[in-house]
Write a structure and sequence with these properties.
Layout (H helix, E strand, L loop, with lengths): L1 H36 L1 H6 L8 H19 L7 H29 L9 H41 L9
Helix pairs in contact: 1-3, 1-5, 3-4, 4-5
Amino acid sequence: MMNRIFRFTYLPFLIVMGLVVGGALYQTISIVPFWEKDITMFRNYGHWGINYFPILSPLMSVLWLVLVVTGIKADVPNKKLFYTANLFFLLIMGSTFLYFAPFLLTHMGHPQTQLSDGELASMLHTWARWDLVRQLTGLIPFGIFIYTYHRIGAVAARPQIQWARP
């Protein structure tokens, strides 16, 4: 039963994680540099992703929890690698909910923020550098999850040898 739930959950998790990672990379590479050039863009920026990340991130988190719980009993070819990816994923999600998302929710799109442009620009610059590190680090578990998904599929597709009885 756990194997079936694990296999059923894995592909939707990969799809949702790919959407979240892709959206976050897009934001980091194409939008954040504009914020850094002009702090008023950041102050007046609408909450991009208001209908994207708040829907996909909790869904991804629930699917991930199901994978972790069912993965204990599932036939994963290299469990150490799978749980290494889970450790990286936990690190990324923890940092997102503790630092990265609160920073955006507190300062982005709030022109009445009491911080001066210099202070906010400095904070944004630090946030942007760490965000780039987080996004690049987030590719590690995504790649490992894809690899382990492939390995699980290869194990499931392996033909079973039936030995003839004498």
